[in-house]
Design a protein that fits this description.
alpha+beta, HIT family, subunit A, homodimer, 5-stranded antiparallel sheet
Chain lengths: 136, 136
């Protein structure tokens, strides 16, 4: 089996904050929304249904972990979960904290406007807080 | 426990084609994309993580069933799966067949343009085909 290799666009646009049994948990570099991207560390997978049943269940519970941690840390109004992948075909699941005054609410975040970078200190603090929430 | 009651907007915008262990499988009345909406028949649930672990696993496998059936029937380039719910808060999962020449490709479908209705005969034929694919 080939070693897992992260798509270069995911590598550029997000930062690894934790690796679990299945996924690389990554923080999007776009600060407009608190936004995690879960990448199952499996080769040549585009659709969730291409994962084994066990991996699908693991993805479900790792998505739950990401969702509950993000809800707890941010107090979001709504968590948006999506596997789209029309552009980047390597399977990845978006877990996004949404608020009623955020950009494009209540519409979707994907493809909306231009990414905005975190300030370094805010990004590092958010990563620390999320790591603690994901591990507790 | 209160009886399950479908949100009136989901009731208006989609048609039930099958009920399984957990979900009401519904076809969106918007014909621009082949688009299923899975509604877990549980009361007062907004987020996937509010479902019991067993229901989360059932939702995973029913989403897989919807995805593989939609892929098989339509030959889609990509299946988009999402639980957003910023407007309609009753938990529902979108499973959408996407093509490179469809409206707003490769962007998301939610909130894009105006819904277009199926012709009755085409809708009925698609429902029949999907029911067979979901049951085989």
């Amino acid at each position: 089996m080939d070693a897992f290799k992260l798509d270069h666009r995911l590598a550029n646009d997000s930062i690894s904050i934790l690796k679990t049994g299945l996924c690389d948990f990554r923080l999007s570099r776009d600060c407009r929304w608190p936004w995690l991207i879960l990448v199952p560390q499996r080769t040549d997978i585009t659709e969730i249904f291409e994962l084994t049943p066990l991996d699908q269940v693991m993805l479900t519970f790792e998505t739950e972990l990401a969702s509950t941690a993000l809800k707890k840390v941010t107090g979001a109004t709504k968590i948006n979960v999506a596997a789209i992948g029309n552009i980047v075909r390597q399977l990845h699941v978006h877990v996004v904290a949404r608020f009623e005054d955020d950009p494009n609410w209540p519409g979707p975040i994907w493809g909306y406007g231009k990414p905005e970078a975190y300030e370094d200190a805010k990004r590092d603090q958010f990563i620390k807080t999320m790591r603690e929430a994901l591990s507790s």
